[in-house]
Q: What sequence folds into this?
């Protein structure tokens, strides 16, 4: 399993619209709106790196997402 957090920046005024679009992604375990330099953080537990790549491709297809930063969780 690959645990991942994706920090998301969106175009001004679209944070609620984007967060609603992200709710359609069944693989996401949580979606939170943030204050600070990023607008949204999502968490997913995925079976493989290939699934992570597919998730990011699908997220980048949302037109109002302007930038993402992906953080892979390293388990102890």
A:
């Amino acid at each position: 399993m690959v645990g991942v957090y994706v920090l998301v920046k969106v175009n001004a005024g679209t944070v609620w619209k984007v967060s609603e679009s992200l709710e359609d992604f069944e693989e996401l375990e949580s979606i939170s709106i943030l204050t600070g330099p990023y607008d949204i953080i999502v968490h997913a537990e995925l079976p493989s790196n290939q699934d992570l790549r597919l998730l990011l491709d699908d997220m980048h297809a949302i037109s109002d997402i302007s930038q993402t930063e992906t953080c892979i969780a390293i388990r102890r």
About this structure: The first strand starts at residue 2 and ends at 10.
